[in-house]
Amino acid sequence: MPELPEVETIARILRPELIGRRIVEADVCWARSVAMPSSKKFKEQIKGQEILEVSRRGKFLKVQLTTYDLLIHLRMSGDLLIKQGKIKPEKHDRLIVTLIPTPFLGEEKGPGKTYLVFNDTRKFGRVWLTDDLEKVLGKLGPEPLSADFTPHWLYDSLQHRHRQLKPLLLDQTFLAGLGNIYTDEALHMAKLHPLVLSDSVTRKQAERLHQAIQAILREGIRRNGASIDWVYRGGDFQNHFRVYGREGQPCPVCGTHIKKIVVGQRGTHICPHCQKG
């Protein structure tokens, strides 16, 4: 599943392709991909909308339209493609949005058409069209690269919960954007075991964790995310992992072999020496 750096990279790629274009129509190829509203209302409401901005909130891609916001969560296998010219829906295409430049003086069926295609093999991805972002994003925690995410906030929030550290960091209502990869990487940098209880973390440890989360995410964004499967392509952060996916290989800090354990039903990579429980 794409995490914050991957979604940020996708937003940066799509931004120049989408901003300033007008939506002619939307072809919903699989109705359940549209979480809000009904597929019929979705097609009616999105028609004629102009794309004003493309950004990100947590793991959600956020496309600001004239009246609404289009939100896309790629989940396990979702992909967004820009296509030109005449196209036909492919096997795993779930939504095709037809776009034209704004202003556009020619016929809507003429040249200059662009298509935003949401392709999703496993059908877990979802799309929302809403005029009230709180309905979808209201429960998300703070952005880890925002001014709201401070060492003091993190320490205080950890102290008010009694949960294992990794599952808590993966909880999007606690902190938005972290997934399996970047949580493992940040915990290793901070020298914290993923099973440590949140309310046992000291202030100094919380400061290290805060610094590690931001450093890992910024590095991931700088390297355009991680390309670790057939879905997300283009980044090279996978070539610089500290622990994730490196079971049996030496820790880059101490040389101890990386170990894979299971935490909250998630494969988790740690250095037994650097991250003592």
Protein described:
The structure is a single chain. This protein has 277 residues and is α+β, with helices and mostly antiparallel strands. It has seven helices and eleven strands. The protein has two domains: 4-137, MutM-like, N-terminal (N-terminal domain of MutM-like DNA repair proteins, Alpha-Beta Barrel), CATH 3.20.190; 151-270, Helicase, Ruva Protein, domain 3, CATH 1.10.8.50. Helix content is 26%, strand content 24%. The chain is elongated, with a radius of gyration of 21 Å. The protein has helices at 4-18, 39-46, 134-137, 151-159, 165-170, 180-190, 203-222, and strands at residues 21-28, 34-36, 51-57, 60-65, 69-73, 78-84, 93-101, 114-120, 126-130, 259-263, 266-270. The model is unreliable at 105-110 (pLDDT under 50). It has a five-stranded mixed sheet with strand order 2-9-5-4-3. A four-stranded antiparallel sheet has the order 1-7-8-6. A two-stranded antiparallel sheet has the order 10-11.
